[in-house]
Amino acid sequence: MSVRGAVLRQLGLPPPYAESRPLELAELDLDGPGPGELRVRVRAAGLCHSDLSVVDGSRPRPMPMVLGHEAAGEVLEAGKGAAPFEAGDQVVLAFVPACGGCRPCRVGRPALCEPGAASNLAGDLLSGARRWHSRDGGEDPLHHLGVSAFAEEIVVSARSAVRVDPEVPPEIAALFGCAVLTGVGAVVNTAHVRLGESVAVFGLGGVGLAAVLGAVAAGADPVVAVDRVPEKLELARELGASVSIEASEDAVAAVREATAGGADHAIETVGSEGVLAEAYAATARGGTTVTVGLPHPERMLTIPAVSLVAEERTLRGSYLGSCVPDRDIPRLVSLYRAGRLPVDRLVTHRLELDELNEGLDRLARGEAVRQIVTLG
């Protein structure tokens, strides 16, 4: 079948992206689903900073590739063995397809699924298959994190999909596949924030503001938000942050003052080793620093090694919010529907599929939180 998809053919094209046009809207052929796979009509997809990190080359991926990894859609067709999914289901797509059989999956850590990581790195589906085909005789595109959300229809592993209530609007449901899962998960699953503990969030994109929402819902006090964009700091306060601090040379001292000596939990979402070092420096004795950002693989972090012992400090990574998508996405959706996670406030712009390059510019300038591509 023929579908339109946004193909990235070359890493590192320079901004402004509205001029260099790294994402090319192309007519592609898409195979039907194989065993254990689903054909999904994408209803909405989020434009995430991780997509920008692929475009600018700081998160290298094989090329060409149909980009996008945060989406919600409708199941059109289920391949053999893809139960319990059936046509008509609304699904949210997680960007790590969990095989269910490897050691991390067996011990309840599907975000670290080994076959899922290998297929994501190669640009394959979990089965090792590729379902995209070029129509112009060029190289066939690869899959982005098992999803390739920036397309009208996609084929995904059923292990990437979670059924959600069809009454949740797709443009909101899509957020639970990355921003909400990652940000809230970092608070509740990785940091294990408890009532009354202090939380500082460094970076207020979609993931960072979701972490603010998660900290507020967990009863953290105070919740400190740090960013360089005044509008994002204002939004963080509207979402329940107790204190907002402009990122500067004095930010660490300001966080430590706001939290009476350091945050019990500091969460870094920027993907910068420098910001991570600041978050670590702003963490209290006995506290936990959690990083969810993805810096370039060659970047290195330097911290005082003795502090890990002498101050009983913890530094933890959090991928996919340390979540179990089948368990956590429905729970988080329930919190949204109960009014405790107003994630709809994260949506700042709505785009058409052919406006993605302009959206990348907006993201690079720090002018957007979550931009949602609507596809009907």
CATH topology of the largest domain: Quinone Oxidoreductase, Chain A, domain 1
What is the general shape?
globular
The CATH architecture of the largest domain: Alpha-Beta Complex
CATH superfamily of the largest domain: Medium-chain alcohol dehydrogenases, catalytic domain
What is the end-to-end distance? 18 Å
Question: Low-confidence runs (pLDDT<50, min 5 residues)?
Answer: none
Please report the number of helical segments: 13
- What percent of residues are in strands? 25-35%
Biggest sheet architecture: 7 strands, mixed
Structural class: alpha/beta
The radius of gyration is 20 Å
Number of strands: 18
CATH C-level class of the largest domain? Alpha Beta
What percentage of residues falls in helices of 4 or more residues?
25-40%
Instruction: Provide the residue-averaged pLDDT.
Output: 97
Number of domains: 2
Description of the structure:
There is one protein chain. The protein is of the alpha/beta class and 376 residues long. It has two domains: 2-177 and 342-374, Quinone Oxidoreductase, Chain A, domain 1; 183-319, Rossmann fold (3-Layer(aba) Sandwich). It is 28% helix and 26% strand. Strands 3, 5, 6, 9, 10, 17 and 18 form a seven-stranded mixed β-sheet that branches. Strands 13-12-11-14-15-16 form a six-stranded parallel β-sheet, sandwiched between helices. The two termini are 18 Å apart. 55% of the residues are buried. The mean pLDDT is 97.
